[in-house]
Amino acid sequence: MSVVLVSLPGAPKVTEEALKKEEDLDKYLESRVEGKYGLGSPTWCLYCGAMATETVPNLPPGGGLASKRSVIEAMYNRLNLYREEEGVSSSV
Questions:
Q1: What predicted TM-score, i.e. pTM, was given to this entire model?
Q2: What is the pLDDT of residues 2-45, one digit of tens each?
Q3: Closest Cα partner for 38 from 26, 20, 50?
Q4: How many whole angstroms separate alpha carbon 2 and alpha carbon 84?
Q5: Angle, CA 68 vertex, CA 84 and CA 86 arms, to 5°
Q6: Are 33 and 76 in contact (CB under 8 A)?
Q7: Which family is this protein grouped under (predicted)?
Q8: Burial of 33 (0-12, 13-18, 19+ CB in 10 A)
Q9: What span, in angstroms and rounded, lies between the C-alpha atoms of 70 and 89?
Q10: Which of 41, 58, 80, 90 has the least CB density, counted as fewest CB within 10 Å?
Q11: Which among 20, 18, 38 is positioned nearest to 28, based on CA atoms?
Q12: Which residue segment(s) compose the domain that 78 sits in?
């Protein structure tokens, strides 16, 4: 399989506004992960189900919550690691 990427000079550029929205969304998602994790130590599947029922502002069009999985998963794993260090175990 081959991929050819053509970049034209008139292609849209990333704006400061878009970068700011992305940063704000990441911070919001991290705060939600921390908030939900404080309620116990849910498994990854239960956690994703709970996040999917929420209305999250400023999600990227076409990608939705799935496009931010890496941010959510990184924060979840970081919190899970802290819990295991404290002696509380949680299965993913």
A1: 0.66
A2: 999 888 888 788 899 989 999 999 999 888 887 776 656 667 77
A3: 50
A4: 44
A5: 10
A6: yes
A7: Belongs to the PP2C family.
A8: buried
A9: 22
A10: 58
A11: 20
A12: 41-92
The answer to whether position 3 is within a domain reads no
The encoded tokens of residue 61 equal 């069009």
Could you give the CA distance from residue 62 to residue 2 in angstroms, rounded to a whole number?
Answer: 25
Count the residues in the chain.
Answer: 92
Report the number of distinct structural domains present in the chain: 1
One-letter amino acid of 76 = Y
pLDDT digits (tens, 9 = 90+) for 60-87: 888 888 888 888 888 888 877 655 555 5
CA 26 to chain centre: 6
